[in-house]
Design goal:
The complex is a heterodimer of chains A (203) and B (205).
Chain A lengths: L6 H16 L12 H10 L5 H17 L3 H21 L7 H18 L5 H20 L8 H23 L5 H26 L1
Helix pairs in contact in A: 2-7, 3-4, 3-5, 3-7, 3-8, 4-6, 4-7, 5-6, 5-8
Chain B lengths: L2 H19 L16 H10 L2 H17 L1 H23 L9 H15 L5 H23 L5 H23 L4 H30 L1
Classes of the chains: A mainly alpha (203), B mainly alpha (205).
Chain lengths: 203, 205
């Protein structure tokens, strides 16, 4: 139901807008650099590689095919396990075959979407979580120096979540019969690209 | 207050906090000087320090998920515990390197993501503990700047933030909206895990 735009609402919004308008005039004792840059660098990092993008979108697509609760459990499991991998990277704990693992994630997740595979939830979570470690390790060791670690981390996690969101949004096509075919086609594409990444990683 | 109004106000506050959070001039290693006095410096410090702001939002979201009673409890207990911790911090001379914000991120984000149903008897002490710990660290930082009056500003900002955020979550009825809150919690926990990685890298290198 549409709500009336009352004077109280208007006053409240104007006061918020005024407060925001005044913010740039705040006098900082020190000006630091790299803070906001850290957030945006982190946010764009997961979008910087096609292998990462496809795998993360595949997680969203697969979740949409599986439906609730996988729809939201998989996109929660992926960033959590990805940060475990990133933490390992930051702590200097090596993970063998990171690039191969990332390529294989695209292959297997693409295959799952193509076949519309429906394993039990714990198995799908373990599969997604296992490959998330490789993605996280690659990102964790690529964190740029001189930027805010916290803001980079938050941007990095949110950027990943948004990629899953893109996958889920595309996955909404699953409710239509032609959409299911489109999703399977997307799975085939991701599988094909994954094979290409795998070939690049091993040669 | 009508439910729609709470939701609109909560969404607006989240949006405004997001904008403030992204301000490029945000300073974390140094105290914020607003030029409007120590109370406003305290408010500015809280709003521009994600290490403090995110755990406060996360605690509010979690308490909101647990119901109005938990939200009301946090609304009063968190500012008081923060003030107490801040007063202790103002009188301490410590150089502690424990990653308290990272642990808060991990704990609160994990609780939200798991939708853990902690009993009220545990939510209360947890709120007090988080308030005390963050307050002590705030006190240590504020000692070299605006001092005690800034804690009053922080207290006020905490009260308003917790009230709005937890009321916002309490008002959410549709199942998917609670899932969105849980996803946000998982992001907070994941960020906390990365912060711990940063902490170890700083310690090891």
């Amino acid at each position: 139901m549409a709500e009336k735009w009352t004077g109280a609402n208007l006053g409240f919004n104007i006061s918020i807008a005024t407060a925001l308008l005044l913010l740039p005039s705040l006098a900082w004792a020190h000006v630091e650099q790299g803070q906001a840059a850290g957030f945006f660098t982190g946010m764009e990092h997961p979008w910087s590689g096609l292998d990462h993008i496809l795998a993360m979108i595949a997680v969203g697509l697969w979740g949409a095919q599986l439906g609730s609760p996988a729809l939201w459990v998989l996109p929660i499991a992926f960033p959590m396990m990805m940060t475990v991998g990133a933490m390992m990277g930051l702590m200097g704990i090596p993970v063998p075959g990171v690039e191969v693992g990332i390529a294989l994630s695209a292959v297997l997740l693409g295959l799952m979407v193509l076949c519309e595979a429906r394993p039990k939830l714990p198995i799908s979570v373990m599969l997604v979580g296992f490959f998330a470690i490789f993605h996280g390790h690659a990102h964790g060791t690529e964190l740029p120096p001189g930027q805010s670690g916290l803001l980079y981390s938050m941007g990095f996690v949110i950027g990943t979540g948004l990629l899953h969101g893109v996958g889920i949004l595309i996955g909404l096509l699953h409710r239509f019969s032609f959409g299911r075919i489109v999703l399977r086609g997307a799975g085939a594409f991701i599988l094909g690209m994954g094979c290409f990444f795998f070939w690049q990683a091993v040669t | 207050m009508k439910r729609g109004c709470i939701q609109r106000t909560g969404a607006l506050v989240l949006g405004v906090l997001g904008v403030i959070f992204l301000l490029p001039a945000a300073a974390f290693a140094h105290l914020v000087t607003t030029g409007m006095g120590p109370v406003y410096d305290g408010i500015g410090h809280l709003l521009l320090t994600p290490e403090d702001l995110v755990p406060v939002i996360a605690l509010s979201l979690y308490c909101g998920m647990r119901g109005a009673r938990a939200g009301r409890y946090a609304m009063f207990m968190l500012p008081l515990a923060w003030l107490l911790g801040g007063l202790v911090g103002l009188n301490l001379d410590l150089d502690v390197t424990i990653p308290v914000p990272a642990l808060s991120f991990l704990l609160l984000g994990g609780l939200i993501a798991a939708d853990a149903k902690l009993p009220d008897q545990l939510i209360g002490p947890m709120t007090v503990m988080i308030g005390l710990l963050h307050g002590v660290f705030n006190g240590l930082v504020l000692k070299s700047g605006p001092g005690g009056p800034a804690l009053l500003g922080i207290m006020g900002a905490l009260f308003v933030l917790v009230a709005l955020m937890s009321a916002f979550v309490v008002s959410l009825e549709r199942p998917w909206t609670r899932i969105v809150v849980r996803v946000m919690g998982s992001w907070v926990a994941a960020s906390g895990m990365l912060m711990i990685g940063w902490y170890f890298r700083g310690q090891l290198s």
